[in-house]
TrEMBL record:
Listed transmembrane segments: 6-31, 43-65, 77-96, 108-126, 138-162, 174-196, 216-236
Transmembrane found in the keyword field: yes
Organism (species): Microbulbifer bruguierae
Source lineage: Bacteria, Pseudomonadati, Pseudomonadota, Gammaproteobacteria, Cellvibrionales
PANTHER family hit by this protein: DOMAIN SIGNALLING PROTEIN, PUTATIVE (AFU_ORTHOLOGUE AFUA_5G11310)-RELATED
KW Transmembrane helix (keyword) present: yes
Ranges for domain MHYT: 5-195
PROSITE patterns attached to this UniProt entry: MHYT (PS50924)
Protein name in UniProt: MHYT domain-containing protein
Top-level taxon: Bacteria
Length: 244
């Protein structure tokens, strides 16, 4: 099967990962500033949503659109939804471990391992949700490399999230995080081989959606995350007192 990447869409996927990462960094600011436990939990959940849903999940499916092939594709609704939940849950857990107490390397390491495994799980579960007239096989060595990249990227993302405070520093950190997120995705894609079968598999009980529908939803997620980040940033600036 002939396939190649549309470099313009690859660049768009990187921009999405940077925007989602920057939004997450903005939202992380609200975690230590929260005056109550409820506010802290909300801040952690929102940061996990921004990083998992905006920077990682949305980037993944836009990155899939960049792969130009000669076969038609669709997505199983249930599998696609589960992949989104995996990404958000993994990132939220990582934020919770690092942000629920004093930030330290003892918290950072296990959080990064769990979060990296979750990000990789989202990627491969999302791949399994693809419906196409082909059989898919994987190179286990490249899969292992992609998981290592995901863990290292998670380590860097969590460290930068809780240590970079200035606006310019956050933007530079988001650029780095975007490279890490895309690196994991496209390395994971390199692990895959396709063999055309000519038979389109059936969707699960929830049905299927087209590539275009998934990409539109991914765009909505990114825009929602950015609006949320702007709102939290304004809330942070307007609060007269912050409890640690």
């Amino acid at each position: 099967m002939l396939s190649q990447y549309n470099l313009s869409i690859v660049f768009v996927s990187y921009v999405i990962s940077v925007l989602g990462s920057f939004a997450a960094l903005q939202l992380v600011t609200a975690i230590p500033a929260a005056a109550t436990r409820a506010q802290r939990r909300t801040a952690i959940l929102c940061a996990g949503l921004a990083l998992g849903g905006g920077a990682i999940w949305s980037m993944h499916f836009v990155g899939m659109l960049a792969l130009q092939t000669e076969m038609r594709m669709a997505y199983d609704v249930w599998g696609t939804a589960v992949s989104l939940v995996i990404a958000i849950a993994a990132c939220t857990f990582g934020m919770w471990v690092c942000g629920s107490g004093r930030f330290s390397i003892d918290r950072l390491l296990p959080a990064a391992v769990f979060m990296g495994a979750g990000v990789a799980g989202m990627h491969y579960y999302g791949m399994a949700a693809m419906l196409m007239p082909a059989e898919v096989s994987y190179n286990l060595n490249i899969i292992l490399i992609s998981v290592i990249i995901a863990v290292v990227a998670s380590f860097a993302a969590l460290w930068m999230a809780f240590n970079m405070q200035g606006g310019l520093q956050k933007f530079a950190s988001a650029l780095v995080m975007g490279v890490a997120v895309c690196g994991m995705h496209y390395t994971g894609m390199a692990a895959i081989s396709y063999r055309m079968t000519g038979v389109m598999p059936e969707a699960g009980w929830a049905g299927s959606v087209s590539e275009t529908s998934v990409e539109i939803f991914a765009g909505v997620v990114v825009l929602s995350v950015l609006v949320l980040a702007i709102g939290v940033a304004r809330w942070y600036r307007k609060r007269p007192v912050f409890a640690s």
